[in-house]
Specification:
304 residues; alpha/beta; Trna Endonuclease, Chain: A, domain 1; 3 domains; five-stranded mixed β-sheet; two-stranded antiparallel ribbon; 7 strands; 48% helix
Length: 304
């Protein structure tokens, strides 16, 4: 089932595709430094009822490998049906784009990562017609970024570290380092989107409460659910600058967060749609639009 952690595990590569090269360099994997990056459509459906949609599809050109496709999938647990789907993705993308394909699976636990890393063979055991070898990122190989200076030097990689180590003993130290790094950012720094991705990636885990507490110490830069909840409810104590008082001001904050998020994701917002968002007085509807803006690709997806 697609949920908040699922979205965060592949969306951070859309926000900063360069994290692919930096993470793989840390893992000593044989890929060059990206010199060109493009986001492709993730719709792999053919002209028939069956719909197939990969999580993220990114075209990357490196200084040593030339152009290739990075097919990103987030996986929270074992799912045998995914194996044939991943093989299909690799074959379809290669046939469609005539480019090499690297299938990357992002996992939050070691058991799922070990399962996803197994080669996928189609055909007879003695004569496989197609073999797909996924490249798995998880707690077993993504570095644990526990130093604040290291986290500040590469916020996306530190975010990936937090998401993939969510169930590991060192998650507390990782979140402390990431929170310290985030406090060094200005309110307009583009890297603040990774605070939202971290919150999504930690959803449903014990670490989510710790991240919420860390963010409530200083929310001047934070635009995720934690900040909106604390601001809108007016329960941010003296630790938080810019305390929001009153329901009207809380709605205004959510509206600005929606528009900021859409701009950061480069989603076109026509004047009519912006007016519809700004004139909305329904807090629940505004929150729904914000959640939909996290994964939408058009303004219609947000407002539907």
């Amino acid at each position: 089932m697609v949920g908040k952690p699922h979205e965060a595990m592949h969306r951070l590569f859309q926000e900063d595709p360069g994290v692919f090269g930096r993470a793989f360099k840390r893992l000593a994997l044989p890929f060059g430094t990206p010199t060109e990056v493009s986001i492709y459509t993730n719709d792999l459906s053919e002209h028939r009822p069956l719909e197939r949609r990969i999580d993220s599809l990114i075209a990357i050109t490196t200084d040593t490998d030339g152009p290739f496709l990075l097919a990103m999938e987030a996986q929270n647990d074992k799912d045998p049906d995914k194996l044939s789907a991943w093989a299909y993705y690799a074959a379809y993308l290669h046939a469609t784009y005539k480019m090499p394909v690297v299938l990357v699976i992002v996992c939050r636990d070691r058991a799922t990562a070990a399962w996803a890393a197994q080669p996928i063979s189609l055909g007879l055991p003695q004569w496989p017609s197609l073999t797909v070898k996924p490249l798995v990122l998880g707690p077993h190989n993504v570095p644990a970024v526990t130093d604040p200076d290291e986290a500040a030097s590469d916020i996306p990689l530190a975010t990936l570290s937090a998401i993939t180590h969510v169930n590991e003993p060192d998650i507390g130290a990782i979140l402390d380092a990431l929170a310290a790094a985030m406090r060094q950012l200005g309110p307009d720094d583009e890297s603040t989107v990774f605070t939202e991705l971290t919150e999504l990636g930690l959803s449903g885990s014990a670490a989510a409460k710790k991240w919420s507490d860390l963010m409530s110490i200083n929310l001047s830069f934070f635009k995720g659910e934690t900040a909106q909840r604390l601001r809108a409810e007016g329960r941010v104590e003296g630790r938080v600058e810019g305390r929001v008082e009153g329901e009207a001001r809380g709605k205004t904050m959510i509206i600005e967060n929606i528009l900021d998020l859409l701009r950061s994701r480069e989603i076109t917002v026509p004047d009519e749609a912006e007016q519809q968002i700004r004139s909305c007085q329904d807090t629940d509807k505004l929150r729904t639009w914000f959640h939909q803006a996290l994964t939408a690709t058009t303004i219609t997806d947000v407002l539907t």
